[in-house]
Amino acid sequence: MATASSRRRNLFSLQPLDAKTQSPLFQRRRVAQEEDMGNAPQVLSLNGKPSANMSLGHAVCERCHDGFSMDEQIVNSNGQVWHTQCFVCAQCFQPFPEGRFFEFEGRKYCEHDFCVLFAPSCGKCGEFISGRVIKAMNSSWHPECFRCFSCAKVLADEGFVKNQGRALCRDCNASEKAKGLGKYVCFKCHSIIDGGHLKWKGEAFHPYHFNCHSCGIELKEDAREKDAELYCLRCHDKMGIPICGACRRPIEERVVHAMGKTWHVEHFVCAKCEKPFLGTRHYEKKGLAYCEIHYHQLFGNICFVCNNIISGDVFSAFNKAWCSAHFACSICDHKMNQKTKFFEFDQKPVCKNCYDKFPSELKKRLKKAYDEAVKAGK
């Protein structure tokens, strides 16, 4: 008959314990790498074989501190043994799915509860971050979620600049800075253009990035474009290009021919209001061009009532002009024509009927004033 001590020694070869080592629970392993987190937990593999210095007869469950029966299956994790029903998540008290768990400060958690309790969430997508974490702008980010606010370029390995609470790449930050200074950013080298800039295909450049297509010298800000090539000003002026009558500079795009000269479209403007004609009719007077409104205001007739240009009959009196629709008695509004007799009262026309109704004394004063004006040659 076997003694009690020999029965205890034979417990290490019990089939349930060996069978447990073949289960996925003891063979699965996962390592969670968490950057920028102190005391990062590790997923531990479960080993069904007890350590050599462990005596099963005196072993107790790490959680409930009870012993084990002789035919009971046990769980061994890093030298600690557990009842199978005690080896559960410290938060939800459920078995670990597929045997995976995370350990933090001596307590074991399933993956879900560990993420909820300890894992950072992404500042953009809101998902838990498993793996590399980017710490920036007082938030945590997936590397692929941390992007430039302006151009959406991934910043994880590029570096960034904080600008008004936004993360910007260096190129976009330079552009923002240039806008604030009222300067351009070179499209080629991405640095601020402190001096004059050169426009090429809609973008701004340092002029020294280009050479004249004809003579090869380094270009300056006054370089010119012709047929998709850049030329220095000297070579450009030798090519028979028309010169603007206003700015005296070469015209490289649309040309306006007027008044015996050539003009940039934006430089052919009214001499009074300085608005470009842009293809509308213009009027010439003493070598200057005027829009229709200002030409008539300066040299034509504008109705005293409606302020419109008078294109038909003009009624002139008292240094004023009226169109046929608005030439009327200023008192009774009766329409008048060229044959209608009228009188002046307060620099306005008054028909004979209304004038006859004036007091005699008033009519005498009006007649006296009229005679004095005629005598003075007014």
Automatic annotation (TrEMBL):
PROSITE patterns with a match to the protein in the record: LIM_DOMAIN_1 (PS00478), LIM_DOMAIN_2 (PS50023)
Biological process annotations from GO: cell-cell adhesion; cell-cell junction organization; positive regulation of integrin-mediated signaling pathway; positive regulation of substrate adhesion-dependent cell spreading
Keywords tagged on the record: Cell junction, LIM domain, Metal-binding, Repeat, Zinc
Residue ranges of domain LIM zinc-binding in the record: 59-119, 120-179, 242-301, 302-361
GO MF, one example: metal ion binding
Subcellular location(s) of the protein: Cell junction
One CC-aspect GO term: focal adhesion
Primary location class: other
Identification of the protein by name: LIM domain-containing protein
Species this chain originates from: Plakobranchus ocellatus
